[in-house]
Write a structure and sequence with these properties.
It contains six helices and no strands. The longest helix has 36 residues, at 170-205. By secondary structure, it is an all-alpha fold.
Length: 206
């Protein structure tokens, strides 16, 4: 049932993961994973029936919150990995010290991205589609929803993973996070282009 198939083909449900091009490594697919989790979270939200009886006790919000959290984490990590490489080319200290892959706290990752964006000289507006608005949104999101929210009903010590009787507007959460995730995706793409420019410059210098 789970046997590998011979390649992904159009018109089938066969898929291919961890596609490695020459010189690539799995880290290069971080942004693709982030975008996939984001798309899945949005599709789940759009599929939820919008009636009062259903929404009152909707545990379907749990996987949506988890998918959006994971999309945020992966986009931030993608930006940190690429940004640290840019910093290294510029002979600047790494924006994030330690193993980025073992960290699941969004705020330290965001702080590293802030340093990287500052180093690159990019400026943003005060909305959720820019770095200036990202901090407020992520601070509020992580304050309301701990990392295990939506993943488990309890934390590692057996305590409730979210506040008792937590009520929130899921549409508002999704609508605020969507532009932020698109912005972080753009940051990752811009850092990849910046890294390519740094590598091209270095190759011409040597």
């Amino acid at each position: 049932m789970f046997a590998p198939v011979r390649g992904a083909r159009r018109g089938t449900t066969n898929v291919a993961l961890n596609i490695q091009w020459p010189g690539d490594d799995p880290v290069s697919e971080m942004d693709f994973y982030a975008e996939a989790y984001h798309r899945a979270g949005r599709k789940l939200f759009d599929a939820i029936p919008k009636n009062d009886d259903y929404w009152f006790f909707s545990f379907d919000a749990c996987p949506i919150i988890f998918l959006y959290w994971h999309a945020l984490e992966l986009h931030l990590k993608d930006a940190v990995v690429k940004g640290n490489s840019v910093m290294a080319f510029r002979e600047k200290p790494a924006a994030f010290k330690g193993n980025v892959f073992s960290s699941h706290d969004l705020m330290p990752l965001l702080e590293a991205v802030e340093k990287i964006v500052c180093e690159c000289g990019w400026k943003g507006k005060g909305d959720t589609g820019s770095l200036l608005g990202a901090r407020a949104v992520i601070e509020e999101f992580t304050a309301v929803f701990p990392r295990v929210a939506g993943l488990y009903p309890v934390g590692t010590k057996g305590e409730a993973s979210i506040d008792t009787g937590l009520t929130f507007d899921l549409r508002s959460v999704v609508d605020r996070l969507d532009p932020l995730l698109r912005y972080l995706s753009d940051v990752g793409s811009a850092l990849e282009a910046e890294l390519d420019d740094e590598q091209d410059f270095l190759s011409h210098e040597t």
